[in-house]
Design brief:
- By secondary structure, the protein is an all-alpha fold.
- It is built from three helices and no strands.
- Helix 2 crosses helix 3.
């Protein structure tokens, strides 16, 4: 693709696969918390969402009083 005169070429962020893997791994602990918060706020859940919420609550020992 040709650039018009005076326009800068867009910057490309190139990351090493190991950096991407470490970034991905660092985000994983936040996923269950976000899922629990999101599913816990919903009024109606599909059977799959309900089972996922139950599994997460059991695994993380979440009870109604917390």
């Amino acid at each position: 693709m040709h650039q018009a005169r005076g326009q800068a070429e867009p910057r490309r962020i190139v990351r090493h696969p190991r950096q991407m893997f470490l970034l991905f791994i660092s985000c994983l602990p936040q996923v269950p918390v976000l899922l629990l918060e999101s599913l816990g706020r919903q009024t109606y859940l599909t059977p799959v969402e309900l089972r996922l919420l139950q599994c997460l609550e059991e695994y993380y020992r979440v009870d109604e009083e917390s």
